[in-house]
Amino acid sequence: MTAGADMKQLLGDIIGERFSERFRRIVEEARENGDRLPFAKITSDLKTYYGVEVSPQHLSRFMLGQSSNPTFALVASLADYFSVPVDYFTTEDEGKIAQAHARSQKATHQRVMEQAAEARREMTDALLALDDEAFASVRQFIEAWQQVARRR
């Protein structure tokens, strides 16, 4: 190997280690309904919203440091998905990392709020589609549930 190739390999190893560490950190902190985001959801969203295909197993290998050669498309889509700058995955600047985590948590909260709003809209639409008898049954169920909840 030449000195240039050695330097390129060393730089790739450093960036790969940093990417794995930062990817692991952001995945462990990203939550959906209190649980860590499953890799299957992340990969599905990456394909749907960014056109980037990666397997859950490959993401797991990145997280464990067993793979260290992410494509720029993958890094860029993960950065956007978690609402952090691309250099979050490679920088040594802890201040930038802290800011990125704060943005990521805010984005996760926003995503949860949007999902809750969508669920409310869907529930409202479903209730409006019920006939009078079915609506009365739903109302009785809700009232009974509220009474049980008040007793607790």
TrEMBL record:
PROSITE patterns: HTH_CROC1. Gene3D superfamilies: lambda repressor-like DNA-binding domains. Residues 54-89 form the HTH cro/C1-type domain. Residues 102-133 form a coiled coil. Keywords: Coiled coil. This is HTH cro/C1-type domain-containing protein. It comes from Kineococcus endophyticus.
